[in-house]
Design brief:
Elements lengths: L1 H7 L3 E6 L2 E5 L3 H18 L10 E3 L6 E3 L2 E3 L1 H12 L4 E5 H6 L2 H4 L2 E7 L8 E6 L14 H7 L4 E8 L2 E5 L4 E5 L6 E2 L10 E6 L2 E6 L5 E5 L6 E3 L3 E3 L3 E6 L10 E9 L2
Parallel strand pairs: 3-6, 11-12
Antiparallel strand pairs: 1-2, 4-5, 6-8, 7-8, 9-10, 9-19, 11-13, 13-14, 14-17, 15-16, 15-18, 18-19
Helix pairs in contact: 1-2
Length: 265
């Protein structure tokens, strides 16, 4: 069924890998439409089932190397990374791909976070494609103008809570988290690395960068899944939980709470 959907959208199935398929399209708009149609067809197929069928879709726009009826190269590697990050029933792409779409389709995409890909010096901005027709979405990437408007002329600061103490990250500031006493916020947990992560502000938004051995876990309130960062960066949503070296779902001495707060000027 999925192969028929790909062909109907003008694509070519390059090969199958386990229960997945790798496809190629000539134009980014065609790949966008195919991704949405694949998700829609799968949703309709599993409608009413106790355990509905769900698929992940990741696609990227760029040059590929063709050899022996297969595709290789950086574009394919990024695609594989998107697949590893996607939730069931989700379509992920990159900012570069979104910029190549026609204007009408760009409006159906939203930025999520940055991720680092092995072998690339520059992080990749991961975007989500809104393939459903409903508008039940959690906005995770407010622009600087939107934040300023929402703040009513004030500014946003990030408040972190840990072990009964509160810490503020200023609009142009940063804090370091970890087990070592030299950090701004010392987290004396066996799961935390000595220099575990850094939180910093950029373009009126706050990001967290993992620098650890075990990873940093991010749970944004209202989000569908917990994100594990491994030497990567991610945008912090309005509020949520950060776990150092272990899932934030299991509260303990490795977990911090965060939220954005407006400070009047």
């Amino acid at each position: 069924m999925l192969e028929r959907q790909v062909q109907a959208a003008g694509g070519v199935v390059v090969k199958t890998v386990g229960d997945g398929i790798i496809c190629q399209f000539d134009e980014p708009d065609a790949a966008f439409r195919a991704a949405c149609e694949l998700q829609q067809a799968t949703a309709e197929l599993g409608a009413g089932d106790r355990t509905p069928l769900r698929i992940k879709v990741g696609y990227n726009y760029g040059p590929v190397v063709l050899a022996q009826s297969d595709v290789f190269g950086d574009t394919v590697n990024v695609c594989a990374r998107l697949m590893s990050l996607a939730n069931p029933a989700q379509v992920l792409t990159t900012r570069q791909t979104v910029d190549a779409l026609s204007p009408a389709l760009r409006g159906r995409c939203r930025n999520l976070y940055e991720t680092q890909i092995r072998g690339r010096g520059v992080p990749v901005v991961v975007c989500e494609v809104m393939w459903r027709s409903d508008a039940d979405l959690t906005k995770v990437d407010l622009s600087q103008s939107e934040l300023a408007a929402a703040a009513g002329g004030g500014e946003w600061v990030l408040k972190l809570s840990y072990a009964g103490e509160s810490y503020l990250v200023e609009p142009a500031g940063s804090v370091r988290l970890g087990r070592d006493a030299s950090n701004d916020i010392v987290v004396p947990s066996e799961h935390a690395s000595r220099q575990h992560a850094r939180i910093f502000a950029r373009d009126a938004q706050f990001l967290i960068a993992d620098q650890s051995s075990n990873g940093t876990f991010l749970m944004v309130d209202g989000g569908a899944r917990e994100l594990r960062l491994r030497r990567e960066q991610a945008l912090l949503g309005e509020r949520g939980w950060i776990g150092l070296g272990k899932t934030a779902a299991n509260h303990g001495d490795h977990v911090l709470r965060y939220r954005l707060e407006r400070r009047p000027r």
